[in-house]
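quick q for whoever's on today - can somebody do inverse folding on this one?? i tried earlier but teh output was garbage lol. tokens:
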């Protein structure tokens, strides 16, 4: 991993926006390819402009494993992309409703030691993400203080360095435990 030329490189806002557009196109393609399937998209929570780090790769591989374990035999197609803008996992499922899939992916996020670094979206047939609240769960909490993560992010309550240090410690603890 140390001789990986893309590890730790900064990405630009334009690259991040292009990656978001690419994810959207990929999601739409999967929805059209099998309208009966539920589409799941997983990415890794990575603050700052370095999206492909040792920590994000460890978390991405752990997320891929956790999603596969949680959704098991329902997975009919899976694809993983390891991009400079981050780790992405795409799945098509059969035999689950979007709400059931969301419950299983939220359980994986809550039970895995790195689950707070997983950002797993389950899409309905129209391509809209199923919210945690729609299945009776509270919004995601902040990695550092436990408040609503969206509020902390919007207000910039925590420094990049504090978040990066916390994530690094989470990954280090996880790696020691496996």
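ok took a stab at it. sequence:
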């Amino acid at each position: 991993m140390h001789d990986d030329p893309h590890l730790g490189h900064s990405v630009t806002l334009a690259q991040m926006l292009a990656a978001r557009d690419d994810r959207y196109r990929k999601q739409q393609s999967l929805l059209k390819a099998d309208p009966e399937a539920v589409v799941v998209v997983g990415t890794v929570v990575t603050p700052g402009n370095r999206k492909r780090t040792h920590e994000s790769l460890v978390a991405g591989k752990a997320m891929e494993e956790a999603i596969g374990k949680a959704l098991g035999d329902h997975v009919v197609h899976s694809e993983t992309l390891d991009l400079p803008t981050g780790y992405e996992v795409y799945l098509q499922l059969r035999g689950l409703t979007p709400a059931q899939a969301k419950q299983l992916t939220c359980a994986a996020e809550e039970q895995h030691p790195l689950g707070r670094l997983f950002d797993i979206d389950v899409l309905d047939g129209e391509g809209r993400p199923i919210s945690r609240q729609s299945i009776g769960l509270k919004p995601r909490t902040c990695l550092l203080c436990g408040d609503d993560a969206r509020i902390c992010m919007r207000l910039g309550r925590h420094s990049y360095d504090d978040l990066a240090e916390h994530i690094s410690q989470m990954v280090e603890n996880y790696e020691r435990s496996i």
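fwiw The mean pLDDT is 92. also The helical segments are 13-33, 54-71, 98-111, 149-155, 160-177. so keep that in mind when u check it
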